[in-house]
Amino acid sequence: MNRARWIAAGLLAVVFLLALGANVLAPAPYAKQFRNDTDHPPSRQYPLGTDDLGRDRLSRLLYGMRISLLLAPAAALISTLLAAIIGGAGAYAGGAWDRSTKIMTDLFLSLPWLFLLLTVRALLPLEIPAMTSVIVTFALLGILGWAASARVVSAAVRGLRDSEFVLQARASGCPPSRLLLRHVLPNVKPILLAQFWISVPLFILTEANLGMLGLGVTEPLPSWGNLLRELENYAALTHSPWLWAPLASLVLVVSLFQFIVAGEEYAS
Amino acid sequence: MKSLRSISHHLIAIVLTALLGGLLGATLVRMAPGFGVQESDLNAQLSAETRQALHRQDAVERNVLSYYWHYLAGLSHGDLGYSRSMDRPVSELLRDRLPETLQSLAIGVAGGWLLGLALALPATWKRSPLYSATASVITGLFLCIPSAVLALLFLVIGSPGKLAIALVVFPKVFRFSRNLLIKTYALPHVLTAKARGLSSARILAYHVLPNIAGPMLALAGVTVSIAFGAAIPVEVVCDSPGLGQLAWKAALSRDVPLLVNLTLIIALVTVAANSFSDLLAPTATRDVI
User: Fold this and answer.
1) Cα B96-B98-B102 angle, rounded to 5 deg
2) Which of A111, A141, B139, B248 lies 20 to 30 A from B257 at CA?
3) Closest alpha carbon to B178 in B131, B239, B227
4) B94/A contact by beta carbon, under 8 A
5) How far is B197 from chain A (nearest CA, A)?
6) Greatest mean pLDDT among A234-243, B116-125, B246-255
7) What confidence score (pLDDT) does residue B131 get?
8) What is the pLDDT of residue B289?
9) Contact A258/B144, CB-based, under 8 Å?
């Protein structure tokens, strides 16, 4: 990693620490309502003001960031593992397995991502507890977001399967499990890592879109998606610039991720 | 012969998508909570015989394979089923809303391509690090903003929200075409043409475009899919009566049959767009070396 990427990683680490320390750093609990101070402008007590229910915006932003920054990597881990299992195993097995996993991947890729998410999300109950909605949203992202990564992983595994060193290892009697663990997996690891890093900002953005459509994390739990819904109040945007804070933080985090991802992609 | 085989491969892919997608959808509908619950059971005005008749009718739908068979038979006659939440046939809803989405997609895809190429071409010609960095930062910024927020921003400044789709598409077009153009401009035959003093326009038209037409057409298919995805939040935020808004309404009212039909149709359209661009790519690409 070059110096610029180290700086980006450092900034991202600071944001992570801020989000992780929400319990300590947040001036108030995320759901606490100060009913006498609704729509309060920024002050010493409320650095980003309060929303229309009197909840402290900074506290909600910190807690919302924590949810997205902890669960998007978890969802990315699920999708990368699924990509490794479906794409990698199919390509390694070859023949009909490879063809059927390819068809399945193409089918998933042909469905626009948000349409698929909406369909599957609609199959689950909409009125669910806030904590369940967080788990459901990110689990769906992880379970349905494997296809693009699987295509990359399967192409890499296919190349490795037909490579000379694997053929030689096979010819010298290397058992399939050892072949997979010692020769194929270490070579696919950088690709899996790159796919993981690519998925994290994608999932953060998708949750934000779902949240804005009212199908993501539900109130009173904050997330970038439902915090951005305050932007729908056009009239307040011009004289309340602090309403842009969730968008600014989202753009900062996603751009830092993308900056690091560019390096990972290049390395892999 | 080769092109016939390619066409048949793509047709098989479209048919497979329809069959697998339909089966997947039919299965998902059955897994949804509340499936099979009869509202008529709560209607005291209906007799026991009528309720039994309705149950018998429903029993056919409960078996996924029999339902799927009926669904395919209906599909072959253009019958896509009935939307309970909208109280209208799905085909009628699609007919009403498709033009709005197609218009949004056309504006979005065309705008995205124009903007992407308008930024990518100077980045290749000038090779100025400052221009390249600025263009990369601008496109990177748009990749970091959710499409729903982009649509909102357009509404705030009083512009049509549909243009937000163009801003979702253009970063992808810019990045892909810039990389492709840089590689193509470094090819020996292009360097020779430059050394012989050919004009920039002639080099682009005769030596660069024929080389990049194939991959660009493949990207065109992909951008249709990207634009479809962006159409949901954009149409919801801008309250435009298209397929994206219909999908969102169907999701909120848990009208799964409607959603499954919509997803299947959109999958077919995107697979067809990708297949079409894949088929055109070899004919569009000319070996100019």
Assistant:
1) 145
2) A141
3) B131
4) no
5) 35
6) B116-125
7) 84
8) 43
9) yes
Spell out the long-range contacts of B133-140 with Cβ–Cβ below 8 A and sequence spacing 24 or more.
B135/B174, B135/B178, B139/B170, B139/B171, B139/B174, B139/B175, B140/A255, B140/A258, B140/A259, B140/B171
Per-residue pLDDT, averaged over B25-36, amounts to 62
Q: Would you call B159 exposed, middle or buried from its count of C-beta atoms within 10 A (0-12, 13-18, 19+)?
A: exposed
**How far off is chain A from B49, nearest CA to CA, in Å?**
32
Please give the structure tokens belonging to residue A149: 């990564």
Which residue has better confidence, B70 or A199?
A199
Per-residue confidence (pLDDT) for residue A232, from 0 to 100: 82
List CB contacts of A2: < 8 A, sequence separation 6 or more.
Answer: A263
Task: Test A258 with B143 for CB contact under 8 angstroms.
Answer: yes
| Cis geometry, peptide bond prior to residue B282 (ω within 30 degrees of 0) | no
Cβ–Cβ gap B149/A208 under 8 Å: yes
Answer yes or no: is pLDDT of B285 > 70: no
Angle (CA) B119-B123-B129 rounded to 5° is 130
- CB contacts of A112 in chain B (<8 Å) are 225-226, 228-229, 266-267, 270
Residues from chain B that touch A106, judged by Cβ atoms under 8 A, are 13, 17
Find residues 205-234 of chain B whose CB sits inside 8 Å of chain A.
225-226, 228-229, 232-233
Q: What is the pLDDT of residue B111?
A: 94
- Residues (pLDDT < 50) of chain A are 268
The C-alpha atoms of residue A267 and residue A261 are separated, in whole angstroms, by 10
> With b meaning 16 or more CB within 10 Å and e meaning fewer, what string describes A23-61?
eeebebebeebeeebeebebeeebebbbbeebbbbbbbb
Q: Sign (positive/negative) of CA torsion A155, A159, A160, A162?
A: positive
For B201-235, how does the pLDDT look when each residue is reduced to its tens digit (9 = 90+)? 898 888 888 888 888 887 888 888 888 888 888 99
On whether any CB of chain B is under 8 Å from the CB of A213, the answer is yes
- Assembly ipTM: 0.82
**Dihedral (CA of B208, B211, B214, B215) sign:** negative
Comparing CA positions, the residue from B126, B159, B142, B130 lying closest to residue B226 is B142
